Amino acid sequence: MSAPVLPVAPAPEAANDRPADNHRSDARPPHSLGERFRASQARRRRASVAVQRPGWFSYTFLIGVLLASIFPLYWSFLIGSGDASTITQRSISPIPGGNFFANAASVLNDPTVNFWKAIGNSIIVSTVVAASVVWFSTLAGFAFAKLRFRGKNGLLVFVIATMAVPTQLGVVPLFIAMSQLQLAGTLGAVILPAIVSAFGVFWMTQYLSQALPYELIEAARVDGASMIRTFWSVALPAARPAAAMLGLFIFIATWTNFFWPFIVLDRQDPTLPVALSLLQSNYFVDYSIVMAGVLLSTIPLLILFAVAGRHLVSGIMQGAVKG
Amino acid sequence: MTAVAVDERPVRRLAFSQKLSRWDVKFSPYLYISPFFILFAITGLFPLVYTAWVSVHEWNLIGGQGDFVGLDNFAFVLQQTPFWVALRNTFSIFLISAVPQVAFALVVAAVLDQNLRAKTFWRMGVLLPFVVAPVAVTLIFSNMFGDQYGLVNTLLGNVGISPIGWHSDALASHFAIATMVNFRWTGYTALILLAAMQAIPRDYYEAAAIDGAGPIRRFFSITIPQLRPTLIFVIITSTIGGLQIFDEPRLYDQFGQGGANSQWMTITLYLYNLGWGQLNFGRAAAVAWLLFLIIVLVGLINMALTRLIASSSGVTASQKRAVRRAERASASTEKEKVSA
Q1: CB 3.0-4.6 Å disulfide test: which of A185, A211, B269, B323 passes with A266?
Q2: Which residues make beta-bridge pairs with B280?
Q3: Residues of A whose CB is below 8 A from B329
Q4: Neighbour-count burial for A109-119, b at 16+ CB within 10 Å, e otherwise
Q5: CA proximity to A210, closest of A145, A144, A136
Q6: Distance between CA atoms of B232 and B93, rounded to whole angstroms?
Q7: Which region is the signal sequence (chain A) (predicted)?
């Protein structure tokens, strides 16, 4: 996102770290020049309360939140780098053991879990779902935001209303349908129900109605571009930032999704969360191996987060303001 | 379009391409939105409606559709103790997670809504848990909340508190599961609230500060009322998601049945057990519809409550006052600029 849309706190008129004083000396009109100057200084100081640099307390608090965010992952590394006996010790050393790679290897080589296959499946499913949601959402968003057609408002309201429908509750018929289509157990059964998203359509509509000027579309039309050409050459490039965010968001949501893949996929051919759940359901639960698997499955998203996390942050915040 | 045709043939060609272009303009929008509506109808709407059809039939995973049984499936489910236990657990977990989560997210958002250094860094740090899959979160936390060797009980033991049965006790297990939910979602919620906070005009705060309102007072008299629409949004979405909770209770122990005495069995887990444990799709579909109705009901109650709370706390009056103050403040700064 190159253009920050978010409203930012206005810069303080004068950099001022002194605490606000609550004198009310300007109750009477100031007369002398010096008095007037002092009064205006005081007013300025008070007015800048909201944009002061925050104190140490805020940073301490945020460091605490940050530690709480990281700690469970660190804990899983601690357990995942030990061995089966680590977890039963009274006090666990805060220094990781040296078994992480051995544990990771035994996760990857566990024949009952099919971890490699799960990684491949997760990549396929998440990529396909993200790409198709972005494509269909941009297409529909372009129509809703910039084209005129009968029934547009009613249909848009319908889209927004469907965002609140808990479609997850349709699992029973969905499973019946997938079984009858011979799709149960295949990746298609996971991908198909997810290839469109009401949220995505709403998101792209909101973005395009602001980011794509009518003049551009008219110019393309006057130049003789067909509708689909206009979409391809004008709307699609304009939609790119929002499309990237939507894709990122959907990718993460699909990667972490468990309920439906768990129902419809075979144990032999799972996605990562399903494979993870199998690690725990082994007869004897070796937590060092489970935790190594947890970390292994999280690392791809952590890398993605390191690269694109700032876009995810601004995506969530923009969606909130508009939604 | 503006070209003036002189002889016959170009006119006809133009007319044809114009017709084509008119069709293009007329039907393209429908063409572009139709994939969404068709696919959503098939994969989202149809299953939901068809759930009602399944729920009034005898229906097994193996045998398929059986006799029409009316509301027998609903009656059966409503007479089952596990259903009511699951309902209790679901609401208990939902309340223990949603209320502190929104409250804490408000605090985090308020802290982030300052003139911080390295803003993006802190925001990303808060959001980090969001990329950890619920399954992974559950496996980590169910280990930390272990009854015997868990970290939490060890720490509690260090300060002299006897170990808590995080798995054996119902309320304790709800607390542990709620902690997982909060771990993953608090930062996300905080960012949404932060975005809404930043949309509040800063003049309001300056005006309140001039009138001597401290940070706490400003938070409750300006921030909270201004956040109302966003709070409603957050509460509604967390209701829809929270009442369908499945991943965490399913993986809280290795058996996935919601505990030996169904201590932490939720409605969606009950649905799963009926459908894919007992292979009774009719009853599972009945549970799905009941849960759907419950979600709608709770959503409506939420909305009514939020409206009530927000409008009864004298919001409008204080807002009006704040606006007036803001106007006064900006007028005075203008004057200052003029005099300077």
Answers
A1: A185
A2: B60
A3: 47
A4: ebeebbbeebb
A5: A145
A6: 20
A7: none
- Helical pair B8-40 and A115-146, crossing angle rounded to 10 deg: 130
| d(CA A153, nearest CA chain B) in Å | 13
Query: How far is the C-alpha of A237 from the C-alpha of B126, rounded, in Å?
Result: 31
Q: Tell me how far apart the alpha carbons of residues A124 and A187 are, in angstroms, rounded to a whole number.
A: 8
Q: Given pLDDT bands bounded at 50, 70 and 90, which one contains residue A307?
A: very high
Q: What is the value of pTM for the model shown?
A: 0.82
Measured in degrees and rounded to the nearest 5, phi and psi for residue A236 equal -60, -45
Residue B9's pLDDT is what? 52
What three-state secondary structure class fits B208? helix
CA distances from residue A309 to A243, A316, B238, B291, B294 in whole angstroms, order as listed? 15, 11, 23, 35, 36
Check: CB of residue A212 under 8 Å from CB of residue A146: yes
Query: Are the Cβ atoms of B246 and A312 closer than 8 angstroms?
Result: no
Q: Which residue of B has its CA nearest to A296?
A: B136
Q: Which residues of A touch B213 (CB under 8 A)?
A: none
Report which of residues B261 and A130 the model is more confident about.
A130
C-alpha torsion A7→A11→A17→A22, nearest 10 = -80
Instruction: Tell me the pLDDT tens digit for each residue of A251-269.
Output: 999 999 999 999 999 888 8
The residue type at B154? T
A positions 267-296 inside 8 Å of B (CB): 272-273, 276-277, 279-282, 285, 287, 290-291, 294
Domains of chain A from N-terminus onward: 109-322 (1.10.3720.10)
